[in-house]
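User: Good morning. I'm curious how S-adenosyl-L-homocysteine would be positioned relative to this chain. Could you predict the structure with it bound?
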Amino acid sequence: MWRATVFTLFPEMFPGPLGVSLAGDARARNLWDLETVDIRAQGIGRHRSVDEPPAGGGAGMVLRADVLAASLDANLAPDDPRPRLLMSPRGRQLTQKRVREWSRGAGVILVCGRFEGIDERVIDARGLEEVSIGDYVLSGGELGAMVLLDAVVRLLPGVMGKEESAAEESFEGGLLEYPHYTKPREFEGRAIPEILLSGDHAKIAAWRKAQAQALTQARRPDLVRGAAPEKKS
Ligand code: SAH
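Assistant: Good morning! Here's the predicted structure, ligand included:
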């Protein structure tokens, strides 16, 4: 079973949104498992202290290297094959490609930072790979971890109904997705494009592809430039 282990100071935030809908149902069906580890269990002293002011001065607090290392060591087998990811605005930005790679593995280990961040030495000493969910700053890594897990879990075998519902989605073919329509046939004077009602599957496929290309060109020209050469279908 695909397994996620999340190291956090706020385990009560989980499963949160991962406990409902697609991800929640999938977990109930044992298609994946989520385990949280409270970093504070390895805190120092009677108050289970986990943070200290930054060396060299400055604002805020820093999560101690020894506390986080002790938490990782007490809860992970040394031969655990899963990638050890640290949620961090400095990290490599999350992409659908990486999400898909992780969905094919054994699971992930996610470390959620808080405060100003975590002591640099434990990142190196425990081989944590920094992953960002975008160019903005959250107050903690938990929401980022949930974003990453939500994106991966929906790709796990058996989670989504039809295989192709993932294959055609935004980013999968290097393009944004074409527009969707459903009933009613007319909404506030706007009709469903005629071609979608024609029953001609080849024409519909060609129209959708053209729409996806035009939309991507208009909104995300960077994706068009970076797209892999098209495969003949
Ligand atoms: N002082 C840090 C930000 C700390 S924010 C800096 O300027 O880089 C506190 C924690 O929130 C981080 O340790 C990280 O775990 C999480 N976090 C904040 N922004 C994030 C982002 N864009 N992606 C992933 N995690 C993020």
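Residues 168-225 form a domain with the Trp Operon Repressor; Chain A fold (CATH 1.10.1270.20). The pocket of S-adenosyl-L-homocysteine is lined by residues 87-90, 112-114, 116-117, 132-134, 136-138, 140-141, 144 (CB under 6 Å).
Let me know if you'd like a different ligand tried.
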